[in-house]
Specification:
The protein is built from eight helices and 17 strands. The longest helix is centred in the last third of the chain and has 30 residues, at 270-299. By secondary structure, the protein is of the alpha/beta class.
């Protein structure tokens, strides 16, 4: 398993419980590290992300699983003998099958102080954090991910009646403007110069002309960039959207390699990633089972 988040640990635990020898290679850089709480994961609501991962690692270790803190740098095929995973900061490992759960990175608009507030009072997913900021003065900041931002502006209105949309670099069509204003969303034009932070809390959005619009929380639509170099360099096929293609179990075009979680599915939340990891773990076990049966048949006396 490459990646020790919800997807990777779920796949790993399924396989460890199936009495497979499993190693998780984890760079320990989870995407949700800036967030304070997990939401939308039944029975884990409000838990700190780091605590959730620690519990998952402990559960995996309880089935004789092994976690190696290192960064995987390459996956190489060994003919019909499986793969070798090259690691920076740890040993190279050989494996009969590989699950890649390396996630994605969020590319944020170039707005001063945005990155520093990311996961605190600058957010992107209202399903993850909207309830906690309900009824507050909210901002939605326009960025490079136009379709996501436009949908986000309408969606965030469900959690507060006080929403201001800053198109920033987005030019609104007349129909888009009508839809937003009909929802009761105020539109403030002009380039966003930065965020105003007072006493370690967001207090407003500053425009290039010096105007400051008081806001307590800002939503922004990042560009979602999959961390899929390991997969593409291995030769895994991609779709029209240039993301790695998989079947419903997460199997890629390279036999014996699965990809799950945000690395192939940008909207996937933790619970979706865990589910995908579980499906991939079961599929990989069936893949290994068929190899085991074929090996046993070839070694039986009737086939010598």
């Amino acid at each position: 398993m490459i990646g020790g988040g919800a997807a990777g640990l779920s796949a790993a635990t399924v396989l460890a419980r199936a009495r497979r020898k499993v190693t998780v290679i984890d760079a320990c850089e989870p995407r949700n590290a800036p967030a304070q709480h997990v939401h939308g994961f039944l029975s884990r609501d409000g838990m700190a992300p780091a605590q959730m991962l620690a519990i998952g690692r402990d559960e995996f270790a309880g089935y004789d699983g092994r976690v190696v803190q290192a960064r995987a740098t390459a996956i190489e095929q060994l003919g019909d003998r499986g793969f070798v995973v090259r690691c920076d900061g740890g040993p190279d490992l050989t494996a009969r099958g590989v699950v890649v759960a390396t996630g994605l990175r969020d590319e944020l608009p170039e707005i001063p102080d945005l990155r520093e507030r990311w996961g605190v009072d600058v957010l992107h997913c209202p399903y993850c954090h909207g309830y906690e900021v309900r009824d507050m003065p909210l901002a939605v900041l326009g960025g490079d991910n136009r379709p996501f931002t436009m949908h986000q502006a309408s969606l965030v209105r469900q959690w507060s009646s006080d929403v201001v949309f800053f198109p920033n670099r987005i030019t609104l069509a007349a129909e888009e403007r009508t839809r937003l204003t009909a929802r009761g969303i105020r539109i403030v034009e002009g380039a966003v110069a930065g965020l105003v932070v007072k006493e370690h809390q967001l207090s407003g959005v500053e425009l290039a002309d010096g105007q400051i619009v008081p806001r307590s929380v800002a939503f922004v639509g990042p560009r979602f960039v999959p961390c899929d170099d390991l997969l593409t360099e291995l030769g895994c096929a991609t779709g029209e959207d240039r993301w790695v293609s998989t079947d419903p179990t997460g199997h890629t075009s390279v036999t014996g390699v699965w990809a799950v979680g945000n690395v192939v599915d940008s909207p996937a939340q933790l619970i979706n990633a865990a589910s995908a990891g579980t499906k991939a773990g079961i599929a990989l076990n069936h893949f290994l089972l068929e190899q085991d049966v074929q090996t046993a048949v070839a070694a039986s006396p009737r086939h010598r």
